[in-house]
Amino acid sequence: MFDFKYYTPTKVVFGKNTESKVADLIKEFGGTKVLIHYGGGSVVRSGLLKRVTDTLDQAGISYVTLGGAVPNPHLGLVYEGIELCKKEKVDFLLGVGGGSAIDSAKAIGYGVANEGDVWDFYDYKRKAEGCLPLGVILTIAATGSEMSDSSVITKEEGLIKRGYSSDYSRPKFAIMNPELTMTLPDYQTACGCTDIMMHTMERYFTNGGNMEITDALAEGLLRTVKKNALILCKDPKNYEARAEVMWAGSLAHNGLTGCGNDGGDWMTHKLEHELGGLYDVAHGAGLAAIWGNWARYVYKDCLPRFKRFALNVMDIEESGSDEEIALKGIEAVEEFYRSIGMPTNLRELGVNPTEEELALMAKKCALGVGGEMGSAKVLNEEAMLSIYRASM
Ligand code: NZQ
Ligand code: ZN
Questions:
Q1: Quick one: 216 and 129 in the same domain?
Q2: What is the pTM of this model?
Q3: Which residues have C-beta atoms less than 6 Å from ligand 1?
Q4: Is residue 84 domain-shared with residue 146, that is, in the same domain?
Q5: Ligand 2 centroid to 224 CA: how many Å?
Q6: Distance of alpha carbon 154 from alpha carbon 368, whole angstroms
Q7: What is the pLDDT of residues 276-334, one digit of tens each?
């Protein structure tokens, strides 16, 4: 077991109609002038944005709005948001939507609180020394950005998708009403469930410092999401299932399922980020398309974990060799992904990269991780290319 720090300062307000508490929460955390930042319009269509602005009007909190954060959110809008905040003297950010709107809001927060180009942080050139305080109203259970320290932004020039993590960006509060996720297209619900599972699995498949309590939490979380993802395929308005998945999404990425280990593997995410940057695919679907191919490449180097996962999460019978059990577990995950409408290769994902494009993604990925990375197995550029090729 490794030493660890666990820091989750986000106040979670969970349940039906909790968005009505937004003005009180902004006041509690000192906000007087707010930027409400959202995505492509789902919050306008659902009426959520209107409810939020009405609540702020009634409470006498002034605000400006900025929509347009796209999935795989763009740096250009971040710059626009930074200028707007400075001009309007905004002192609090409210991200309303999914990971994209929240991550874009976090990036705006860095840009306002620090001098210079905000991309420097995502380009690993320097570290942020603060972030404007941020609150969140979540509309899709997926990334865990509502409690995480991460923000992932795509620079349009060169289509470079990079993440930056610091505790400064952890939201002050997260309003989570599972009912708000009921307007999601089924595909986005499934993408979200996949991402939640992947955040747990990235931390689970490691070669360092595993802890019994962390494993038990991770395995319970994975079983819960698997079960409720299947329920939501048939019954998308099931409140209990929406709630289980929503809370799992936060716990999967607030650090809880990584306590005591070496921090996790994260190579499936890194490989997916190149896909998201280049082809603008939905993050969860990109992860599903890569994972099985990553797993078959690395499992022999992390066999006890793959075996344990097969038995405890995927309900594989304990018969045959460890390798056979591990492989059955990998196949069962892919079968599960297909059963919720997720792809298990790039063709099913709808992209068909050329050999040159695969090589470019591997090169950018290796560059992005400083040469090589991974805990289940350390991957270099050549290994990354092999996994991309196997995913075709
Ligand atoms: O943009 P709008 O119109 O709101 O539509 C969105 C978008 O099209 C729609 N949507 C969201 N809530 C809805 C809804 N439609 C109807 N009803 C609702 N209630 O769903 C689509 C996807 O939204 P998005 O915010 O892009 O999804 P997600 O939360 O999966 O975020 C993905 C982004 O987060 C990054 C991903 O790489 C990707 O860029 N990640 C962020 C992380 C973090 N900050 O910790 C970690 C993750 O691993 C991930 O990398
Ligand atoms: Zn993710």
A1: no
A2: 0.97
A3: 39-43, 71-72, 97-101, 103, 139-140, 142-145, 148, 150-152, 180-181, 183-184, 188, 191-192, 195, 253, 269, 276, 283
A4: yes
A5: 18
A6: 13
A7: 989 999 999 999 999 999 999 999 999 999 999 999 999 999 999 999 999 999 999 99
